[in-house]
Amino acid sequence: STLQFSISGNQVESLPKEIQVATVHVMWTIVKVHGSSPVQAPETPQHLVIDFVEYLQSLPEDRKWAMSDISVEGSIDEVVRAIKEGTGVAVSDGSYKEGYSTAAFTVEGASECGKIQGTMVTPGPSESQGSYQGEVGGLFGIAVLTSALVKFYNITPATMILGCDGKSALNRCSLLDKALFPEAKHFDLINATRRMLEGSGV
How deeply is 29 buried, as exposed, middle or buried, from its count of CB atoms within 10 A (0-12, 13-18, 19+)? Predict the structure, then answer.
């Protein structure tokens, strides 16, 4: 069965002894728990998932739209550790259907102990919609999420492998030394993704 909770804003100073690993899906201020299993509480208290989700919802509007549908599996600390150790992996996939550009993305560690996933519909006029827009939107989602992780958890150093099934979109967003001209198609979203990646510290 699925349990549903709402984000209250209250913080817990220490984790209870009966802590469990849970699979949750977060939609704005609603948290749905789909499953859990008992684990031994760590010696050092982990940041609660809800704290980071609240941080994502406090981001400026020009990037918060990409964080509207986020789900967490396992421990965020595993993702944080992987980014710090250089074993973190981020992958996105964009598509186009019925007039909408959509994307799904995931940021995870080398093991299956922790991952953060997101889905989105990219904004913009109908003439800008398409599979390429979806690919870039997914990379923007990764850039926003990664930047937030690095800042919230103060990750230093931060290194990660970035992947996307659209090679052109991946290159244009990640090869920061290559020129990008304002008249280029999808310039706004590509430029925003570049700026997020460049400023993320990854």
Answer: middle
